[in-house]
Each structure stands twice: as C-alpha cells, then as structure tokens.
Amino acid sequence: MVSTLLVSLEDIRAAARRIAGRVLGTPMVQSFSLGELAGVPVHLKLEHHQMTGSFKLRGATNAVLSLSRAERSRGIVAASTGNHGRALAYAAKAEGAVATICMSRLVPENKVSEIRRLGADVRIVGSSQDEAQQEVDRLVREEGLVMVPPFDHPDVVAGQGTLGLEIIDILAEAATVLVPLSGGGLAAGVAAAVKGISPTTKVIGLTMEKGAAMKASLDAGRPVQVEEVASLADSLGGGIGLDNRVTFAMCRDLLDEIILLTEAEIAAGMRHAYACERQVVEGAGAVGIAALLAGKLVGNGPIVAILSGQNVDMEQHLRVINGTQPLYREEGL
What we know:
This protein is of the alpha/beta class and 333 residues long. Helix content is 44%, strand content 13%.
C-alpha cells in the first residue's frame, strides 16, 4: 500500500538527501520513568532540539529547496500556527528568499516575535487558521507569491517523513510510534517512512480533545471544518483544508489509531517532561507523554514518543509547571 501513496518512501529518502546538513538529526533517549509506567521500553525522540525548535524545519527546508530559483525570487507565503512560519522564515532566509507568514490572533506572541526576528513579513489576520489562509490565497492570486503550506503538500510531507527514517534507523525494533496530529503533515510523513520500512509498526496520532480537525474529518469520511479554539497544544489547532489533497488520505490509510487528550492531560505531559525528563516542550510536543501518563495507550513496545516542539511562552510554561495555568475550555476560558 505504501508504494501507492502520494508521498512514497523513496520521496522521503530523496528529501533526506536534499536537506542533509541543513537540519539536525535529533537524538533519541530512553525514558525509564515512562517505561516503568507503560511496562515496556519507552524512547523519546527529541525533535524539539531542532534548530527552529520544532520538526517543521524539515518540511519547510525540503519544500524551499524543491522550488526553482525563479519561484523563490517571487517570495514565499504560508499560513501558520507558529512553528511552520518560523521554520519557513528560517529556510527562506537561508536561500535568499523573502517569506510572508499569515497567522491568526490565536498564535502566541513568542512565536510571532521570533518569526519577525528572522526577517519575515508577518500578517495577523482573523481568529482562525482558515482566515489566515484566505489572506495567503489573496497574496498568491494578486501578488504572485509562491505558497508553501504548513502540511498539505508532498514536499512538506516528505520532509517531515525524514523524522520517521531517523526513528527506525536508531531503533529498528520500534513497535509503536506516537505522533502529534494536527493537519497531518508530520503524521503522514512519519507513518509513510516507518511503515515503508517496518509495516507492522503501529503509528498512533495524538491530538487535543476539542477542535481536532483531522479526527473529525476522518470520522466524517471527508475533510470538514471545525471551530478553532484556544489550547495548551496551540500548534495542533487549525483545519486541514476542505480541499485537502495529501494528508487526509495518508492519515486515513496509515494511522492505526487517534487518541484525544484533555487540557489537564496535556498539562500533565508538560509537567512530566520538565520534572522527570528535564525537557522543556510546548503542549503539542507533550501529547505522547500525556497519553502514556493518562493510560490511554495500549501498545506493544518499544514505544517511541516524538517531542515535536519547544516553542512555548516561558511564562505560560512556568504556570503549567507550577499548576497555576488556567486550563482552556475546562475552566471556561
């Protein structure tokens, strides 16, 4: 089945060759505390150590390098919940291109300011990822910018899939891989890579309980729009696009399961990452740990949990660690 996917194992291997030297091969460490809890070995893929603080640099770099020089000279544009924008601004700057990043008002200021620092033109539009995407579409249509979307693009998915290659290269016997799930770029790429090499390995998507667009779409059998709401896992917000061409089908065909997590469970994952693993991760990066702590995962080992990003506002992080951060939705915020 993998050979018929829109992004193949060979596409991912080609992406790995293309981005070599431009992104970090991130380490993987064993978590003895989580392994004791789960009853099987648990390993953490420390992708939050990536140069821009998240896995997004892989897909953004592969996509930018796949553009022609003429396309890059027109300027690059994308909608983002923060991490893709930061990665695209970094990758574009490295190739001498100008990036324009469109974001909603829900994107935390720490992510917005870092994107500006990297020299991108930042546009704050509306209160959802869908509204930010409308501005992207206008810039493509009226000003000729070239869009590099955050997830629904073969080059982006192939770039994210290089993370899956690294996991299997480090731990060939991995039985279960836990992947944060939003628009599906990471999950689709990792699943295609992992299952292309090890078909029996389970790949499980993890996302927040409410506003989970991919889960709602898979349940409906087609891409659907969901209300975007605030969450500790803000990087997992946003829709998958009603005209989704790549990630919906790949997630449908490759993911073995999707696990939903409450805000309290995500906060517990962040606290455990800091207190027991000595890792600072944003909410989206903590969902694998959260699922293990909550006992929501029944999987064979060894288990690999991807810590996907660390771009969290540190004041908010300290409140989460200290237990003083109000939880979105669960306390009416």
